[in-house]
Design goal:
With 219 residues, the protein is of the alpha+beta class. 38% of the residues lie in helices and 21% in strands. It has helices spanning 3-26, 42-49, 72-77, 97-105, 135-149, 189-200, 202-210, and strands at 33-39, 55-63, 83-90, 115-116, 119-120, 126-130, 157-159, 163-165, 179-182, 185-188. A 6-stranded mixed β-sheet has the order 7-6-1-3-2-8, covered by helices on one side. The longest helix is centred in the N-terminal third of the chain and has 24 residues, at 3-26. The mean pLDDT is 89.
Amino acid sequence: MTARRTLKTVSLALSIALCLVVQSMTSHAQDLETLTVAGGCFWCVEADFEKVEGVKEAVSGFAGGTTANPTYKQVTGGNTGHYEAVQIKFDPTKVEVETLLSLFFRSIDPTDAGGQFCDRGDSYRTAVFATASQKCAAELAKATAHAELGQSVVSPILHSWPFYPADSYHQNFYKEGGIILTRFGPKSKAKAYKAYRDACGRDARVKALWGPDAPFVGG
């Protein structure tokens, strides 16, 4: 191990220790907490995190922009500044925010600044919208991802922005049974979601990048 790599390892270890101290000082008994992240298609992020024990709900929506209560068409059309985002509501006594952040970075391609997988453009960029109490853990999760990948991690850690839920059509899309018309003919939402996820190459890229550390491959 080179001296430079040793220094990076020691620095990361010190950061972990400092973050744990800060978390222990700010933590207290409470009800559900929220973590807002942007990881490309919000259907996929919602589907992934609703599998995690301790997560009570994941809501698809928008964050990071200047338009209040934007529509899906406005966001994907550009110029609102919003990301497709998911607000994860979780029980901190059952799953820690550090665990969720670790899962998040390993469920995306954090080296891609132009979108995610087949979805390109500003609304599909990745980010963590951290509250003041989450910022240390988010920065640490990003630094750890960088160290493990050995590549630049471009997903920014942003301050907490207003979150606007998407309309009901986009909620629980991955498990809905309603029939919709796709270019492959009529399909249930759940089947359309699976076909989209496979065609977009999300799981293939995440698996190639993270290998056995990819937590949701096949989701």
